[in-house]
Design brief:
Layout (H helix, E strand, L loop, with lengths): L1 H13 L5 H13 L3 H13 L1 H9 L1 H6 L11 E5 L4 E6 L8 H4 L4 H4 L1 H9 L1 H7 L9 E6 L5 E5 L11 H5 L4 H5 L7 H5 L1
Parallel strand pairs: 1-4, 2-3
Helix pairs in contact: 3-4, 8-9
């Protein structure tokens, strides 16, 4: 895939359709200003600040905007809380609606027809393919994003992180954990 992207970039640049500096700026923007790091900061804040957490679950869009994340594809975001009893998972069955300001660009698998159909029909099977096995008693709720509403999953805070700073907690939050197809990293994962 990387070779294909490079080849396409080379052709577009050689034909004068793309300015390499503008492309580099766009990529840097998505890597550092738009992307999963933003969502990780939202989740970490919710883990350490009870007032923020309440605002996030009451009306996520303005709560997320408090941290400076807003814009296209982030106008109407709903935060979903994972608990031992309920695990939330997000899909867009029609296309690939996705909360770009907090998660960045959607992964290729999120847009694929197999994920979009199987997430609804067999969520436990899909989660198992992502390496997530939940107890049988845990209810799995699948949420269908639309052009009107997008979702952000707030995963459960990993055990052993009491007293951690917001910045360190954010390192545990993965893109997949905010879609519901993964879990956050454990404290041991950061030690590796």
């Amino acid at each position: 895939m990387q070779l294909r992207v490079r080849a396409l970039e080379t052709v577009l640049t050689e034909k004068g359709y793309v300015d390499p500096a503008a492309l580099d700026l766009l990529i840097e923007t998505y890597e550092t200003k738009i992307g999963p790091r933003n969502g990780a900061r939202v989740v970490a804040r919710a883990w350490v600040d009870a007032d923020y957490r309440a605002r996030l679950f009451k009306d996520a869009t303005p709560a997320i905007a408090e941290l400076g994340y807003a814009g296209r594809q982030g106008e109407h975001i709903v935060a979903l809380e994972n608990t031992p009893e309920v695990h939330n998972m997000v899909v867009c069955t029609l296309c690939s609606c996705y909360p770009w300001p907090v998660l960045g660009l959607p992964p290729v698998w999120y847009k694929s027809a197999p994920y979009r159909s199987r997430a609804v029909a067999d969520p436990r099977g899909v989660l198992a393919e992502f390496g997530v096995t939940l107890p049988p008693e845990t209810e799995i709720r699948v949420w269908d994003s639309t052009s009107e509403i997008r979702y952000l999953v707030v995963p459960m805070r990993p055990a052993g992180t009491e007293g951690w700073s917001e910045e360190k907690l954010a390192e545990l939050v993965t893109r997949d954990s905010m879609i519901g197809t993964g879990l956050p990293k454990s404290p041991a994962d950061l030690a590796k």
